[in-house]
């Protein structure tokens, strides 16, 4: 038993194409320890989203080993994978993915309904707690289109946190925000990291990687640590 939230060993993934197999992930090794905040940088098409889908249990690798919270995910049924996903993973997306005709509080209740460990009597308190954490306790009755982009992403982060996951997987979390709101979201993620949350961010943006304690680069499906001087160069 170790304190890795994620352990990947020798992971490979190809997609079939008319012209033959297209290898997208090649021999990926990665360990993410509890409480780490990590960025994966890479150009478009380098394989970042494919890796994130596998880490988030939305897709499976062809070969290699993936342990999430010390559990080997390779032999699990679809139902077991969905249970594991709900229990351990919070997602933050570039486009926020809030449900437009639900209020903030209703959006935050959605993941709770899939979580049998949380008693419905606790929903209101949970919702208030995560909204307070992201600084939006006074917006619970607002609809998403009544909020700024930065506020919508805060709600999305609150939603990702509401089931108290072991890791936040963030897919370009600042990609749809102006630089001021992007900085605020990175500051919020930094605060969550200080409080002990484990966070993985995939991004094109070097300034996002600079907010993380460790960064990797993805290039043609290969993952390697980003050296200090590379933080300052464009990917
Ligand atoms: N479902 C799929 N079927 C076939 N090929 C795919 C599929 N998904 C991704 N690919 C291919 O895998 C490669 C990597 O794609 P991926 O989306 O992982 O890259 P990315 O680094 O996330 O890019 P971006 O930053 O533009 O989102 C691309 O060449 C893409 O065409």
TrEMBL record:
Keywords attached to this entry: ATP-binding, Nucleotide-binding, Transport
Residue ranges constituting the ABC transporter domain according to the UniProt record: 6-235
Protein name listed in UniProt: ABC transporter ATP-binding protein
PROSITE patterns: ABC_TRANSPORTER_1, ABC_TRANSPORTER_2
Keyword Nucleotide-binding: yes
Natural source organism: Shewanella litoralis
SMART domains per the UniProt record, alphabetical: AAA
Pfam family, any one: ABC_tran
GO molecular function annotations of the record: ATP binding
Keyword Repeat set for record: no
Top-rank taxon: Bacteria
